[in-house]
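User: Modeling request: complex.
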Amino acid sequence: MNLIEKYIEENKDRFLNELFGLIRIPSISSVSAHKPDMYRAAEYWKELLMSSGADHAEVFETDGNPVTYGEKIIDPAKPTVLVYGHMDVMPVEPLELWKSPPFEPEIRDGKIWARGADDDKGQSMMHAKAFELMVKTNTLPCNVKFMIEGEEEIGSPNLGKWCEENKEMLKADVILVSDTTMIRPDLPTITTGLRGLAYWQVEVTGPNRDLHSGMFGGAVANPINVLSKMIAQMTDDNGHITIPGFYDDVLEVSAEERALMAKTPFDLDSYKKALDIEEVAGEAGYSTIERTGIRPSFDVCGIWGGYTGEGAKTVLPSKAFAKISSRLVPNQNHEAIAEMFQSHFQSIAPKTVKVEVTPLHGGQAYACPIELPAYQAAEKAYLDVYGRRPLPNRSGGSIPIISTFEQVLGIKTILMGFGLEADAIHSPNENYPLEQFYKGIQTIPLFYKYFAEMSEV
Amino acid sequence: MNLIEKYIEENKDRFLNELFGLIRIPSISSVSAHKPDMYRAAEYWKELLMSSGADHAEVFETDGNPVTYGEKIIDPAKPTVLVYGHMDVMPVEPLELWKSPPFEPEIRDGKIWARGADDDKGQSMMHAKAFELMVKTNTLPCNVKFMIEGEEEIGSPNLGKWCEENKEMLKADVILVSDTTMIRPDLPTITTGLRGLAYWQVEVTGPNRDLHSGMFGGAVANPINVLSKMIAQMTDDNGHITIPGFYDDVLEVSAEERALMAKTPFDLDSYKKALDIEEVAGEAGYSTIERTGIRPSFDVCGIWGGYTGEGAKTVLPSKAFAKISSRLVPNQNHEAIAEMFQSHFQSIAPKTVKVEVTPLHGGQAYACPIELPAYQAAEKAYLDVYGRRPLPNRSGGSIPIISTFEQVLGIKTILMGFGLEADAIHSPNENYPLEQFYKGIQTIPLFYKYFAEMSEV
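Assistant: Request completed. Predicted assembly structure:
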């Protein structure tokens, strides 16, 4: 048992308790009633960084939720790693589907079950504890900075400005983030691409009040019928998005890279079985991995209108609503796409209704070249712990702030994810295997070691 | 001031208080938590009929909500009028749109504001009080029976069977109902046609759990996207319903009758202004009055799925739901239509999802010939009170039980409605003008008078 393994073994229960304390704070950033919880989480992180060995830690105000910053500078001549994570989590509805309460972590079947167990409380906690390990065992080879924000799940609307204002303080050689997944527990992966995002709420108004569907049905446009037709028109029979100009800036991926992607282990039958679907769906001409990795998507995330209670109420409703999102790929500008959607959606509205479109959030896609020394340091760290060289992987998810870091701070990010697909992030019964939690804490110090060595060369 | 007017004037405040007592019982039949309120309403009606002059009144159990029956038999040789009404009301959501609490009646601007003020507590109360008036002034010329049910708003699922079982008790020459509207307060109308109804709930299931829209978006069918496309396909660009065979049994209305209908006063501009819509919508080739009067409709009454809370949650939901209804016209069989929809909707579902269709309720359309003596008695009664001969009118609404009465009891129904379109039935801020309430009580005894006279001939 080496030094790292020994330290983890001796402190594993305390690590878990520190994570549980963080999980118990219901820091849902999209619900304004949880604002006080965001401050509790920020203070929790401040204490956590100090007790883990930071020289200094501080809660910063922003125009939205607070950011916790902490650092340990061992030698200005050494390389600096900036760790990014987020303390906020997704909403937990539908509550009735959770097997244990979302904010009361429970260990079952070797996994931690709770909202945030993986995304991103579990994964960011690994960095705090790996940092503690290096400090307490006198093996820290780099300067370390932590930046933990509270608005990632709502698109990090204030972090870009905060980075801008604190550029000097945030100076670093690389940004290190664990907020992504590995393909399988025995197959480590480093995410080299992230999709961008655009997200809108639409409101369709027909008559100025709910109407009797008998007296008016057939003569007055029903906003739900109309909204359905409008949504239906947004994609064609080939799964293409019909917004004019939508694909203009999409970076087409070379045949060579697509051939490499095709080597990623993927079993369509188990994929379908795991989701209990008879057939997958998507853009014609692309594989499932390509559909989420290199192609944009169009999903209605929520829809509502009219009577949704028990039984049968006959009503021709006044309004219908939807939350609509599109995942974007490298080179698509989320602001341009947001405007494109807005004007296109307005343009296909019939004169029988009024349509309002409100952009809710967005972010750029991101790509990380595998030639970066920091990427190679991460590769070696995984190889040591997992016994296998990790595959580079393009994720379908979005961490909009990653491309902002590149634009504002000029620093590339390494996405060392330890999550698994089965972790059900954003869903009921989110979970995180204990093994991944501890292996993460074991892998991260090796990244620091190799990154420091490579930087000395 | 004649006898009728004098009695109303002397008792008008008490009449109103008796109505208010009924309104205060939140008898929402579609919500099972209100079951006890249905029994309270049934007992209230029993007391009301007894205190109004019935020989006998009784609350009958059914497989669903109770029915209150009461009668006064003055002479078996005289004609018998069977009054039908309903004590149940529609749900009240969205509550925040009500200017005063729905079950706390308030008088403002000469109107009663409350759920059920018109539909059908206000309109059925007129019959109880007109009955009292005739009893107390010794002018009752017919035998009278009352049948007040508690499931009209959910399609009267048990009343047909109850009628079947009580055929002898319910024997009558005509059924009299006030549950419809007049075109304008100065233009009385008698409803001669009612649309039928079919109503379904549909459930579309994609993946077996809510998914991260980044990890899966673009590769797995989104049930909201799919449901929208399915709903969109149900009507074409001409406003025709696309279910194969849907129009096969529709009774096409003659050019002559359509020419007559075209004479009904109707101002498209004020119609659009009242609803705050720029354009009406509907089946090509038919006027607005025809679209609701003689043509079937297809309306989504409710839709829901995914994240519908505050802010932006990115999710690819597991399920999407809709409540869908179709208003039917004479000669269409609601059961055949229900099956047609069910199999068609299933047939257009892609293999990427599972679709369940549950019929929730339905009823046949109805037509009343204007040659009936009872129709002519109603005409004369309105003429006396309103100074104008009423127009026959085809209503877009449904009272499914009316056609059941004809099938089971073999009795035609006269629909003497006193509601107005502005009464906002089924909507927030339902109301009923005091003037219509009192004029109704004044008109009904005249119907009995003329009907008795005509029956003697």
